[in-house]
Amino acid sequence: MNLRSIVSVLTALGLGSSMAFAQADATVQADHLAVELISESPVLVPGQTAWLGLVLRHAPHWHSYWINPGDSGLPTRLSWTLPDGYSVDAIAWPAPTRFEVGGLYNFGYAGEQLLPIALHVPASAMPGARAALAVEVKWLVCREECIPGKASLDIELPVSSVAAAPTAAHRERFEAARHALPVATSWSGSARLAGDRIAIRLDAVDLPSTEGLDVFAVERRILDNGPVTVRREGDTLLIDVAKNDYFEQAPAALDLVLTRRMTNGGAGAWQVRVPFVAGPHNE
User: Fold this and answer.
1) Is the entire prediction scored with pTM above 0.85?
2) What is the distance between the terminal CA atoms of the chain, rounded to a whole angstrom?
């Protein structure tokens, strides 16, 4: 009897959807990276949003990439096969880390990282049915050399009219991933081109300290990917960074992610969109 048959028998006998769910998680071990598809909840509820997670477990000293990979690399990409009426959002990207490799700067993840994906369950989903969710994952994992990889993962979850609590292990993983998501802010500011550099100004009363602060652009080929210079003047952050070598035209707006990692292990992440202006900042 195969695994799917065993799961079906257990479900028919009423032996807890969480047991079926635990056996449905999909894991693939590849070169220097293990990937796993999990669901925060053991069941899907019609008309509600559920959260799936792509878990990346990197070998020591290896990393994969954020939506903007930096000087080199490619972001992890997902291609889904879902039942009729189901849909998923793009990856909700946790804040990245900056890696220096041979004089190049890359943005991404090391260790274990969960990439959250929102799954929208149609109101027409029938309780008692099972939803088969499949995804093809493509990635690039690097140390000094880079190795492309891909895997096909699938998970089957029961549809229920009643929500169910996640297992403790999955709850902790999703909570950690949500904590790593940049928080949307209402900060004001602007970015402008100043010769071969880009000057960014952020104004707000709740700006973070400059200790351990780093700045990333979501858009590629705007900012240089090396470390930025940040200083604070009262309720203003002034960010100075070189223009990217491939910069061609200023965008209408610049999406930024700021991260703050402290020596005591604390961290925070914020996101802000600022207009790209032609002239000097308003003082």
Assistant:
1) yes
2) 73
